[in-house]
Amino acid sequence: MATTNGGNIRKGSFILFKNQPHLVTRTEFVSPGKGSAFTRAKLKNVKTSAVQEYTFKSTEAIEELDVITKEMQFSYLDGTDVFFMDPRSYEQVSVPADLLEGKIGYLTTDVIMYVVFLDDDAIGVRFPATVKLKVTYAEETTAGNRVNAPKKPVTVETGATIQAPLFVKAGDVLVIDTETGDYVSRAN
């Protein structure tokens, strides 16, 4: 395990907190005018899925976990678990669906994901920055309503609903930001 300080903790890192592995889901570095700097962090226990917030002093020592990341493909969703397959060895692993933080709607079998392992246990999934998803349903819109770049809900191939510009229609392939869930562009 590597050690870092509270001022260097980053979103997406895995740390040992109260003797349990945690995923850092959000951070905010604060440097007040008086007193020492600190980092507010939102932590998710990868074993129990419990979420808590904690404030780390900028000089506080934190144990970063030695995790291994493997490229894997999404296979299928089975209730509370998501299954991924190693395209080289065909080995399958399951990850609890709640560790994907509501991003299941971005999973397709052609997307390469990055499954994070700690001691041979899958403890998390890292998504690519964007995914391409085909629109299966989009309401028709009338011309003229263009004030403030309005958006409409569209349904994509995974069943997820995305807010997209009015010109998007069924059959279009969209590029979606996996961090925010926002429409980026139409794919070529």
What does this structure look like?
It contains no helices and 16 strands. The model has no long low-confidence stretch (mean pLDDT 85). The strands form three sheets. Strands 1-6-2-3-4-5 form a six-stranded antiparallel β-sheet, with no helix packed on it. A five-stranded antiparallel β-sheet has the order 9-8-7-10-11, with no helix packed on it. The radius of gyration is 20 Å and the shape is flat. It folds into three domains: 2-64, SH3 type barrels (Roll), CATH 2.30.30; 68-126, OB fold (Dihydrolipoamide Acetyltransferase, E2P) (Beta Barrel), CATH 2.40.50; 130-186, OB fold (Dihydrolipoamide Acetyltransferase, E2P) (Beta Barrel), CATH 2.40.50. It is an all-beta fold and 188 residues long. A hairpin with a 4-residue loop joins strand 13 (151-156) and strand 14.
Top keywords for this entry?
OB fold (Dihydrolipoamide Acetyltransferase, E2P), mainly beta, SH3 type barrels, 188 residues, 54% strand
> Largest beta sheet: what is the strand line-up?
1-6-2-3-4-5
Count of separate DSSP helical elements? 0
| Coarse morphology | flat
Tally of separate domains: 3
Low-confidence stretches: none
DSSP, total strands:
16
At the third CATH level, what is the topology name of the largest domain? SH3 type barrels
Q: What is the CA-based Rg, rounded?
A: 20 Å
Sheet-strand content, in percent, reads over 45%
Q: Mean of the pLDDT scores? A: 85
User: Class of the largest domain in CATH?
Assistant: Mainly Beta
Along the chain, the helix and strand elements come as: EEEEEEEEEEEEEEEE
CATH A-level architecture of the largest domain = Roll
As a percent range, the share of helical residues equals under 10%
First CA to last CA: what distance? 43 Å
Biggest sheet descriptor: 6 strands, antiparallel
Structural class: mainly beta
